[in-house]
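dude i think i finally got it to work??
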Amino acid sequence: MFKFADPSYLWLLVAVALLVLLRFYNLLKRRRLMSRLGDKQLLAAMMPDVSRGRPTVKFWLLISALALMIVMLARPQMGSKISNDKRNGIETIIALDISNSMLAQDVVPSRLEKSKMLVESLVDNFTNDKIGLVVFAGDAFVQLPITNDYVSAKMFLHDISPSLITTQGTDLARAINLSASSFTQQQGVGRAIIVITDGEDHEGGAEEAVKAARKKGINVFILGIGSNKGAPIPLGGDYLKDASGNVVMSALNEDMCRSLAQAGSGSYIHVDNTNDAQEKLNSELAKLQKGTTQDVVYSEYADQFQAFGLIVILLLIVEACLLEAKNPRFKNVFLFKKKSKIE
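look at this
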């Protein structure tokens, strides 16, 4: 399988195409000017050392070298080994609350950042498992479809912030339903939804969504993050305030989190400033029945830019050695055009 490690550079090929069009335009303009000076054959006889073909060849050599250098920047790679791997693992969807209340700092550095750190540690412990990311607030959407590409999972995780969803609130039911529909169709695989939230459900219907997921054989784990005492929500250099001007205090709703976990036959885990939550979650996931997932894997990708680089060097050497004017020693040798006859 052939691919580019960084295909964004390929857009530069558009600039190469524009250079080619500009070249054709200048040639047409030059021919019109030359035709006004006199007969074409007479002009050729007056300029015996001028070659029409050599500048064109030099131009195409440079354009080809430039295009290949752009391809080199995109890092062409070839999959050298194809295997159909059967992986023993589970499928896990992380449903992460990104409402403004997750910015509260009763957990260091904040509820949201602590959650992201927990998920990243979870991914680091995965070997044969698949993971997907769903983010939610007043709405929910899939941030990362389920995959075993852990590097991409971490990249998408770092980009998560409350600004991804403009609709504020906490719609747990929508997040759970979306997560439940985001698994693969593979049979015999253990599945889990891990909901990380402070428990401020503003929409309702979450318990019904958890029970529906459980009927599909999906285990739902609820990770409640924050403190029962509550904390203000940083927003725009100040704290979020209500209509009366009072600072809004956001507290963890542990009762709701526990009831959801019970309805989903999962576990409730409190996330605080320790690493206890990480250890408990790893232990719970280890209990899940691990099925077999099958994937087509290109296990080795080899960079191919070396071959392109060699061609570029050869093209540049030929271009540098090729003169635009005819060499007097070879004036009777015509490589790029037929000999003109003047009568």
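The first strand starts at residue 2 and ends at 4.
im so relieved honestly
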